[in-house]
Amino acid sequence: MRLNEIRDNPGSAKPRKRVGRGIGSGMGKTSGRGVKGQKARSGVAIKGFEGGQMPIYRRLPKRGFKPRNKVYYEIVNTGALQKAVDDKRLDAGKGIDRDALVAAGLVRVNGAPTRILGKGELTASLNITAHSVSAGAKEMVQKAGGSVTIEAAPVEAAE
Length: 159
Known about the structure:
By secondary structure, the chain is an alpha/beta fold. The protein has a domain at 74-158: CATH 3.100.10.10. It is 21% helix and 11% strand. The protein contains 5 helices and 5 strands; from the N terminus they run H-E-H-H-E-E-E-H-E-H. A 3-stranded parallel beta sheet has the order 1-2-4. A two-stranded parallel sheet has the order 3-5. The two termini are 59 Å apart.
């Protein structure tokens, strides 16, 4: 192969369309833009315009409020913990903290604080360390013979 033999793959480069070059080309006069007006000019976009009618984003009421410093938790249910212990993804003998939950695939690695909720059955005795635990989950863990330790949420997650 030589440098003068290098070519594009067939069909990889489309030929440039020459517009405004006479009616015989099929793209003459208005160059495929229809006729006069704002949309026939370049650099114009009419996104929310509805022909003078009040646009939908102004007709509908504004709703909701998103607090700036709300802490969004990664949720783990007790049933999921039990299933992970049964599947040998979690070791019931060792302490269960965020790193163990990430290794078991129960939470993501994004650094959000974890919250344990009491949905599902729990029979394994687990020593859990989490950022937040519901009252039902705490009772369920203690009934199964385990313990719950609550640690402070990371500062980045609170912002």
